[in-house]
Amino acid sequence: MENILELVRERRSVRTFDGKDIGGELKEKLVSFMEKIENPYGIPVEFRLLEPEEYKLTSAVITGAPLYIGAKSARTEHMEEAFGFSFEALVLYAQSLGLGTTWLGGTMDRKAFEKAMELNDGEIMPCVSPVGFPAAKMSLRETLMRKGIKADKRLSFGEVFFDGSFDTPLTEDRAGALAEPLEAVRLAPSAVNKQPWRAVVSRNSVHFYEKRSRGYVSDATGDLQKIDVGIAMCHFALTAEELGLSPVLTVGDPGISCEEDTQYVATFSVG
Ligand SMILES: Cc1cc2nc3c(=O)[nH]c(=O)nc-3n(C[C@H](O)[C@H](O)[C@H](O)COP(=O)(O)O)c2cc1C
Mean pLDDT in the chain? Predict the structure, then answer.
């Protein structure tokens, strides 16, 4: 994968597909990438390409998807961050192949997907995604849905990134070499486009936080907004790696004072 920030800028959720098979070569590429995906938590995420007809897989918001990607993981601490990180690496890889995806945590026949994934006790399948070629034109439902969620908008840089403490918004100038990795974070997809990620930059460390809203935690999905932060951290790490910044993940709350709805998640240190 090359030029992560470009892939991040190009990506959008695709809910209307052209219905065409993606062909053996692209399937093989996806499968071999899925088998190699790693995340900095070292928590395995198992991916499968699923044929909708075989398992009667449906989603009320998706039309014409030739395939779905299912994913599951053990129910363990940091599962959400790891799941978000690994799945988003696959989303960006699909984007690099010209394939569209959409993270789905709610609007799908969850039972049918869990069956197709052979979900066992102690495992969780928080989200799935369709994968295929985008249709030339979005369905009316997709267009309306994007408007409803304001899917094309994002919070500004200074609203989500901070300089040393949550009191001081970070400017792109001050962010220096971190400006691009942080821009990739800012543009990430999130459940209902809530953008719950926040980050405090302190010297060469970027402390990631989750600003929680009500209604995003369930037994079936875990904490969807923590998955969002995992997605954001994937964008950060892949962009930083490409720039030669060698990001390293640690988990250790730096004790920066924050609001009650905001929770420390993890820190990336860069070289
Ligand atoms: C964890 C997660 C769960 C999501 N679940 C759904 C879903 O159930 N149905 C849906 O239509 N979109 C879902 N989305 C897609 C978001 O609505 C979308 O990413 C957001 O509105 C931003 O739009 P964009 O992806 O086109 O940039 C989900 C996204 C994430 C990250």
Answer: 97
d(CA 206, CA 208): 6
Q: Is the C-beta atom of 34 inside 6 A of ligand 1? A: no
Q: What's the domain count of the chain? A: 2
Q: Which amino acid is at 34?
A: M
Q: Is the CB of 134 under 6 A from ligand 1?
A: no
Does residue 189 have its Cβ closer than 6 Å to ligand 1? yes
Q: Answer yes or no: is the C-beta of 193 below 6 A from any ligand 1 atom.
A: yes
Q: Which of 239, 208, 238, 241 is nearest to 226 (CA)?
A: 208
Is residue 2's pLDDT more than 90? no
Q: What is the pLDDT of residue 271?
A: 86
Domain carrying residue 211 = 157-269
Q: What is the CATH number of the domain that holds 193?
A: 3.40.109.30
| CB 181 near ligand 1, within 6 Å | no
pLDDT value at 173 more than 80: yes
Q: Given ligand 1 and candidates 192, 231, 233, which is best to mutate, with the most ligand atoms within 8 Å of its CB?
A: 192
Q: Which of 105, 102, 81, 79 is nearest to 11 (CA)?
A: 102
Q: Are the C-beta atoms of 65 and 22 separated by less than 8 Å?
A: no
Backbone angles phi, psi at 174, to 5 degrees: -65, -30
